[in-house]
Design brief:
The chain is globular. With 119 residues, it is mainly β. The protein contains no helices and eleven strands. Strands 2, 4, 5, 6, 9, 10 and 11 form a seven-stranded mixed β-sheet that branches. A four-stranded antiparallel β-sheet has the order 1-3-8-7, with no helix packed on it. Strand 4 (33-38) and strand 5 (44-50) form a beta hairpin.
């Protein structure tokens, strides 16, 4: 399994970023996929998840209405559109195999991409 995130960076509050995750080494369209994040000094937390067919997305309360998860099964790609970013969204964002029924300590994830929101 290989998960490679990209698209992070620095953005001012209120700005937008789009994260991408390139997946390989498994049958992508058979699995739910997720985004998790780890803020400085804090543990991992679920951000968003999506079923294999793109339906029934899950969002953490803190990102509802601002983030949108999507996937392209033909390209083995997972995305996270992040709008109206806040300083508290600053974290390393990871693409993860599977959905939120897993224990965070057990997830398979990529190397992460840093998102920094500050003025």
């Amino acid at each position: 399994v290989q998960l490679v995130e990209s698209g992070g960076g620095w953005v001012q509050p209120g700005g937008s970023l789009r994260l991408s995750c390139a997946a390989s080494g498994f049958t992508f369209d058979e699995y739910a996929m997720s985004w998790v994040r780890q803020a400085p000094g804090k543990g991992l937390e679920w951000v968003s998840a999506i079923n294999w067919n793109g339906r029934d997305p899950y969002y953490a309360e803190s990102v509802k209405g601002r983030f949108a998860i999507s996937r392209d099964n033909a390209k083995n790609m997972l995305y996270l559109q992040m709008d109206s970013l806040k300083s508290e969204d600053t974290a390393v964002y990871y693409c993860a195999l599977g959905g939120t029924s897993q224990a965070l300590d057990d997830i398979t994830r990529g190397q992460g991409t840093q998102v920094t929101v500050s003025s």
